[in-house]
Amino acid sequence: MLELRHLETLTAIREGGSLVEAAERLHVTQSALSHQLRDLEDRLGLQLLNRRTRPLRFTTAGLRLLGLADEVLPRLRTAERELRRLAAGQTGRLHLAIECHSCFQWLMPALDVFRSQWPDVALDLSAGFSFAPIPALVRGDLDLVITSDPVPMDAVSYIPLFRYELVLAVARDSALAARRHLAPDDLADQTLITYPVERARLDIFTAFLDPAGVEPAAQRTAELTPMMAQLVASGRGVAALPNWALTEYLDQGLLKAVPLGAEGVWRTLYAAVRVEEQHAPYLQDFLAVARELCFRDLSGIRMPRGQGA
């Protein structure tokens, strides 16, 4: 009576908080998802969701099935990965570099999981190519690059991981903190804190300030996200960062995050790999682990366009 897709549906509803978000995660229409849920409830003769509450709440029966899903689905994914290793061999190399300093929050847990599942794959996270990683990828010095700035090249395939919103981190007592969203001119009298990378790779300039012909009053750099957050909290500037990278600082009440523009500035994070190696089983497995952990642990991210978003 119960099928794996039913457990996956209930898990997606819990993680998404709504039928709309769950449908996006499962790559189905909302009506198809609602029909599947009703069909399951009819089979069981039990109501699984209280649809009168916002957000949706699970009934006792629904919570019982979620408990089952939490037991079964991880074991199934582990078995699938083990079978792929058996079919494809267990050796290889995965040398990575990142272009986004804030990626460590989700990347390190993903690497830990991957290392336990592919113990014979040589794994390395390189800092030596941090500011010019794509040429190193093409040369073969690297095997995967995490980037939000894809440069079209015949030798490189860009695999979308997730979409995120670029927001402006401001001090809690800043006049900007009360704004619903910001215009480029609002940054004209601000000190902008950025990572120490070239201007052409900073989304705050390329996607927001440069099109409007606006310059900040000053610019300073900081190597690490926590350092940037502390500078912002102490009123020494503002910083444009991914929404998910600010979650812990927002929860602690250290600063505020304000959208850039009425529609927001949304970017996509990609995994860049060499075209001839994009289907390597261990590489595909790493991407699956990374996506799974991202959508489990990060707040405010969306599926890439064309994949349910």
How are the elements arranged and paired?
Blueprint: H1 4-16, H2 19-26, H3 30-44, E1 49-50, E2 57-58, H4 60-88, E3 92-98, H5 104-117, E4 121-126, H6 133-139, E5 144-147, E6 156-171, E7 191-194, H7 203-212, E8 218-221, H8 225-233, E9 238-242, H9 247-251, E10 255-259, E11 265-274, H10 281-297
Parallel strand pairs: 3-4, 3-5, 7-8, 7-9
Antiparallel strand pairs: 1-2, 5-11, 6-9, 6-10, 6-11
Structure report:
- By secondary structure, this protein is an alpha/beta fold.
- The protein has three domains: 4-85, Winged helix-like DNA-binding domain superfamily/Winged helix DNA-binding domain (Arc Repressor Mutant, subunit A, Orthogonal Bundle); 92-162 and 268-297, Periplasmic binding protein-like II (D-Maltodextrin-Binding Protein, domain 2); 163-266, 3-Layer(aba) Sandwich (D-Maltodextrin-Binding Protein, domain 2).
- It has helices at 4-16, 19-26, 30-44, 60-88, 104-117, 133-139, 203-212, 225-233, 247-251, 281-297; strands at residues 49-50, 57-58, 92-98, 121-126, 144-147, 156-171, 191-194, 218-221, 238-242, 255-259, 265-274.
- The strands form two sheets. Strands 3, 4, 5, 6, 7, 8, 9, 10 and 11 form a nine-stranded mixed beta sheet that branches. Strands 1-2 form a two-stranded antiparallel ribbon.
- The radius of gyration is 22 Å and the shape is globular.
- The protein starts with a helix and ends in a 12-residue tail after the last helix.
- GO terms for molecular function: DNA-binding transcription factor activity; transcription cis-regulatory region binding.
- It comes from Isoalcanivorax pacificus W11-5.
